[in-house]
Amino acid sequence: MAEIEQINMFDLDLNILDKHWLEQPRLVFKYGNKLAEAKEALERAKSVHEVKRAEIMADIIADPERFSLKKTTADVIKSTIDVDPDVMMAQKIIQSSKYEVDICQVMMSALDNRKAALENLVKLHGQQYFATPQANDAGQEVLKNQKANKIKDRLRKRREEV
């Protein structure tokens, strides 16, 4: 499951906040399901590991000579079980499954952070934080007069030069 697709969830376009919000629940559901699947796989791996350990223990107790054991103390049995190839493989599968759960939990955390970022961007947008400055009517009149005065000054300078 390490093939979790890379979504560009950190590049939020301020012009399409509505689309980001609409995709958020879908992403949470999608990766929430992946997390549930990863947790289920981890539990299955743990069960297989326990069964393998129990089977090896039963085999050791039934026929210790087959495992070249002279004594069958608890420590010797545990050590023999721990180095059994099937038990070791089951342990590697558990470790891999734990990693997948961790990756999915990181993804869910990232989605929580994305949600918070979207909430804050929407608040800033509502406060017109991203708006371009605009002059009110009085300010526009002043700008218009300044522009007209500049044009008059240029014309006057040209007349004086001629």
Report on the structure:
The chain has 162 residues and is an all-alpha fold. The chain contains four helices and no strands. It has helices at residues 17-62, 74-82, 85-126, 137-161. The N and C termini lie far apart (82 Å). Residues 1-6 have low confidence and may be disordered.
SSE map:
Elements lengths: L16 H46 L11 H9 L2 H42 L10 H25 L1
Helix pairs in contact: 1-2, 1-3
Please tag this protein with its features:
162 residues, mainly alpha, Helix Hairpins, 2 domains, disordered N terminus
Largest sheet: none
Radius of gyration: 35 Å
The count of β-strands is 0
- In percent, how helical is the residue content? over 70%
State the helix count. 4
CATH topology label of the largest domain: Helix Hairpins
Please, what is the oligomeric state? single chain
Overall mean confidence score, pLDDT: 88
- Gross CATH architecture of the largest domain: Orthogonal Bundle
User: pLDDT under 50 segments (min length 5)?
Assistant: 1-6
How far apart are the termini?
Answer: 82 Å
CATH domain class name of the largest domain: Mainly Alpha
How many domains? The number is 2
Shape: rod-shaped
Helix and strand sequence: HHHH
Strand content: under 5%
Based on helices, strands and strand pairing, what is the structural class?
A: mainly alpha
